[in-house]
Design goal:
Layout lengths: L6 H19 L15 H5 L1 H61 L1
Length: about 110
């Protein structure tokens, strides 16, 4: 739709949309319906307590995300270690088969 509009009109509409979304979002903990919707009576009241709760929630989710990332990283490290062991096991099997081939050549 934006391609069909003239450049001047398009920029006006885009700026209006941005302004509307900024106004609707407000600041975190600023009251009901702002910062992701109502979050209980403290958040609905707004003010310092609402902002504090919003900051604590942000911190909680940031820590939760860090824990998940650490667990994912550990999982990948474990997978790498497992595959290295598999490579070593397969290399021993290859060497064993090569030894059998050498033994068969000596029997000829």
């Amino acid at each position: 739709m934006a391609r069909l509009l003239r450049p001047g009109l398009r920029s006006i509409i885009v700026s209006q949309l941005r302004s509307a979304s900024d106004h609707q979002m407000g600041s975190l903990g600023g009251g009901a319906g702002k910062g992701g919707g109502a979050g209980g009576s403290i958040r609905e009241a707004g003010g310092a307590m609402g902002k504090k709760q919003a900051a604590e929630e942000e911190l909680y989710f940031r820590r939760k995300e860090q824990e998940q990332m650490a667990a994912l990283k550990q999982h990948h490290q474990d997978e790498i270690e497992h595959h290295k062991k598999e490579i070593e096991r397969m290399q021993r099997e290859i060497d064993r088969h090569k030894g059998k081939i050498r033994m068969l050549k000596h029997d000829d």
